[in-house]
Design brief:
globular, 15 strands, 7 helices, four-stranded antiparallel beta sheet
Length: 280
């Protein structure tokens, strides 16, 4: 009987909510090792995925895993965990590895421009569904899509007949080719440093003092982890989220001005065409 040392495995994680999520992943790992079954986690954000993978990789002799959000560019994903021997032939080109069960279900309904992302999430949660059972929500021009765990799919299909005050016809969808593509806007900014408060101020046209207060109030995430240090130096590729304002990624460094300031290109989500469910 395997008994994993949870204290040792999560002692590097500081935030209580993250400890809870990763403990659940460890519970799944232990079940796989002891019962020789395949299972999957609830939906996790990219930061939680990275924390989980750092732990899963310590047990590669016993278990294997696969991250899946339902489509290539997903934000929230689940982790399939299974005994390492179960798909040991997957490196053989003649062997087609297929899981017996896929734990993601995709739903769609006709897009209503009066229905916002928060309305959809709120209506699903209003069915007393756990937040971790809901994946990405994507609003396209013709259809709105969302992913859920299979264990709640039948319940959602029967009970979700209205979003906000609008009736909807919910349909299961097997083909992900119709999912809307993420679109972005690009903005050029000139900054004196890569400090977190400095970049947020420039991107969203906010005062530095207001940004510092927002950071202290835990309204900011960097790479999906809450960040309370205004002085944090960012790097190319970092993703910054500011609650109620949106998110941006440091996309490219174009060069320097004559005064030595940095000329940066940041990439912002184009919310008007598609809204991906984000964790905050």
């Amino acid at each position: 009987m395997v008994n994993l040392n949870r204290i040792d495995l999560i002692n590097h994680i500081n935030r209580p909510e993250e400890k809870i999520s990763i403990r659940r992943v460890i519970d799944k790992m232990e079940s796989v090792m002891n019962s020789h079954i395949s299972t999957s986690t609830d939906f996790l954000n990219p930061h939680e995925i990275n924390l989980s993978i750092s732990i899963l990789n310590r047990f590669r002799d016993n278990i294997s895993y696969e991250v899946d959000g339902g489509y290539e560019d997903s934000e929230s994903s689940i982790i399939y965990i299974y005994p390492s021997y179960m798909y040991e032939k997957e490196d053989d080109p003649s062997y087609m590895c297929e899981k017996e069960d896929v734990d993601l279900v995709l739903f769609k309904f006709e897009t209503n421009n009066k229905i916002k992302h928060s309305d959809i999430l709120g209506s699903i949660l209003g069915l007393s569904v756990d937040r971790g059972k809901i994946g990405d929500i994507l609003i396209g021009e013709k259809y709105t899509y969302f992913f859920v765990k299979r264990e709640i799919a039948n319940f959602v299909e029967i009970n979700l007949t209205k979003v906000s005050r609008y009736n909807i016809l919910l349909l299961r969808e097997d083909d992900i080719s119709g999912l809307p593509k993420k679109e972005y806007d690009y903005k050029k900014i000139i900054v004196s440093s890569f400090r977190l408060d400095n970049l947020i101020s420039k991107v969203f046209n906010l005062s530095r003092s207001k940004v510092k207060d927002m950071i202290k109030s835990e309204l900011v995430k960097v790479n999906f982890a809450k960040e309370t240090r205004s002085h944090l130096e960012l790097e190319l590729g970092d993703l910054v989220s500011l609650r109620h304002y949106g998110r941006f990624r440091i996309f490219n460094l174009e060069g320097n001005t004559k005064k030595g300031n940095f000329v940066l290109i940041v990439r912002l989500n184009k919310w008007g065409d598609i809204y991906v469910c984000c964790y905050f």
